[in-house]
Amino acid sequence: MIYRLWYFIRETVVSLWRNLSLTLAAILTVGISLSLVGTSLLVREGADRATAQFQEGVEFIVFMNADHTPDQDTAIRQVLDTSPAIGGYSYVDKLAAYEEFQTLFVDKPELIESVTPDVMPPSYRIVPADPDAANVAELARQFSSQPGVREVATATDAIRQIEDFSTRVSQVLLVAAVVLVAVSAMLILNTVFTAIGARREEIEVMKLVGATNWFVRIPFMLEGMIHGLIGAALAIPSLFIVENQVLSFFQESDVVPLFRGFAVPDGFVWDTSLWLLLLGGAVGMFGSAVAVTRYLDV
Amino acid sequence: MIRLESVSKVFKGDVTALRDASAEIQRGEFVFLVGPSGSGKSTFIRLLNREEVADSGRIMVAGKDLGSLSSWRVPYLRRNIGCIFQDYKLLSKKTVAENVAFGLEVIGRPRPVIKRQVPAILELVGLSRKADRTPDELSGGEQQRVSIARAFVNRPLILLADEPTGNLDPATSVGIMRLLDRINRSGTTVVMATHDRSVVDTMRRRVIELDRGVIVRDESRGVYD
Predict the structure, then answer these.
(1) What integer is the mean pLDDT of B18-25?
(2) Which residues contact A77 (CB under 8 A, 6 or more apart)?
(3) Which residue in A141, A175, B7, B160 has a CA-CA distance of 20 to 30 Å to B111?
(4) How far apart are the C-alpha atoms of B195 and B201, rounded to whole Å?
């Protein structure tokens, strides 16, 4: 067994080396495309977190005082339930607010420690019947004058624009990434095909003396998988660059205070890295598997 | 060891390579296949190695029915069959020893076994002193000896030879035939397709003659024609 393993490794390395320029092209393409896949995932995750409170049509949020009375609550609910200007709403109690706070600031434990569920303001997330900006502003003004209300936060145009922008950016990145992943699979297929061509004579002899199909195939499949894995490994640093440079730029920008939440939890980049490695290996295996099944049969 | 029952093989464009061929070859026999070009000698050889599959009839090799042999078992069949060719099929970038070792390596033989068997077989074919040369540094006869070493190193039951002396001068051919004879005497069945009249007439072994895919003669201790 150990001899076979040694044989596979040796043959794979020799083949990678013999085909150096194509190998590098394949690896770089995988690296670039997986960088885009990863960036797209990070931007998507960051945007989702930053705008978590304003999703699904929620245009404004009525924060209650932490110590508001049940009567004040009932009064607000009555307006919400009866007013034709309200399309729908949901109630976020203290505990839910605290949990959301924990998720948003997962990488800032000192901030989480400074609060308890008790001090979190419960809130109503409101979907207006008419999301027009002027209408939302008018509704917000009405609610802010109600007793027990601490403040009303509206999804401003700026938030919507940035949300749209990040969605669009991540979508464009994703489309480009999918195309590039397909290109890398084809490039790997071609590289492995060339490697097979360069070793036609050896393969002929191998079959003649009774090497099994898998014995012939495995070095080529390993070759494709290595293209994918090295490419993915190259893409991983780019994730950290995106996290440290791009996302932190949003976090520190004063455009919209809410965008302090434009961050991903620490583990997310590592998780994404793992996915990229798996994806890279899979793309490599797929490309080389197509090559060996198409060009290597008895 | 080898049995053909009414075997036919037709290639694309209605080229009949073998028609209703029947023959039985016993363990340890030495058989010449003779006949003009295109008479079906190579197809005969390739059918035994399962590089081709018969259209009809039955072929038994080393106890296996090749018609019903699933493709994943073919490599295991071939480990019992050594093959040599007119063009040697050596790997030009590997040394003599590496070429022979390659045949063992790719069927998963452990390194200690390879280290033991390769020098022994090179000794047998008389190339011990050229183990580190590459094929292009060798004469045609020497290259064919390497090819025989590779085919025989795994001690196959059967050795198939397709025109092994086709590129060699008569004196060198004699040396190759002595080697094949020696291998045959060790119990290996040898089937050799050839055009080489002097080889066949000197050896006086069983001769199967093919003409346009039909077996027209099968005699023990035969001559070329």
Answers:
(1) 94
(2) none
(3) B160
(4) 11
pLDDT for res B59:
96
- Band the pLDDT of B179: cuts 50, 70, 90: very high
Q: How many CB atoms lie within 10 A of CB B69?
A: 16
Per the CB < 8 Å rule, is B75 touching A202? no
Cα(A267)–Cα(B36) distance, integer angstroms: 75
Could you tell me if B93 lies within 8 Å of chain A, comparing CB atoms?
Answer: no
Residues of B in contact with A298 (CB under 8 A): 71, 74
Residues of chain A short of pLDDT 50, as ranges, are 256, 298
Q: Which of B51, B74, B106, B116 would you mutate first to test chain A, the one with the most A CBs within 10 A? A: B106
When CB atoms are compared, the residue of B89, B106, B111 closest to A211 is B106
Residues A86-131 pLDDT 10s: 777 878 877 888 887 777 777 677 777 777 877 777 888 777 777 6
**Closest CA relative to residue B50, chosen from B22, B77, B14:** B77
pLDDT, one tens digit per residue, over B120-152 is: 999 999 999 999 999 999 999 999 999 999 999
Q: Which of B79, B89, B111 sits opposite A210 (nearest CB)?
A: B79
**Residue A85 near residue A111, CB atoms below 8 Å:** no
Question: Is the pLDDT confidence value at B48 over 90?
Answer: yes
DSSP 8-state secondary structure symbol assigned to residue B69: -
- Taking CA atoms, what residue in A is nearest to B82? A209
pLDDT at site A54: 65
Tokens 């420690």 locate to A113
pLDDT value for A73: 78
With CA atoms as reference, the chain B residue closest to A4 would be B108
Chain B environment of A208 (Cβ under 8 Å): 49, 78, 83, 89
Cα separation, A244 vs B126, whole angstroms: 69
Cα(A10)–Cα(A4) distance, integer angstroms: 10
Do residue B75 and residue A201 have CB atoms under 8 angstroms apart?
A: no
On chain A, the residues whose CB falls within 8 A of the CB of B111 are 3
The larger pLDDT score, comparing residue A104 to residue B105, is at: B105
DSSP count for chain A of H helices, then E strands = 11, 4
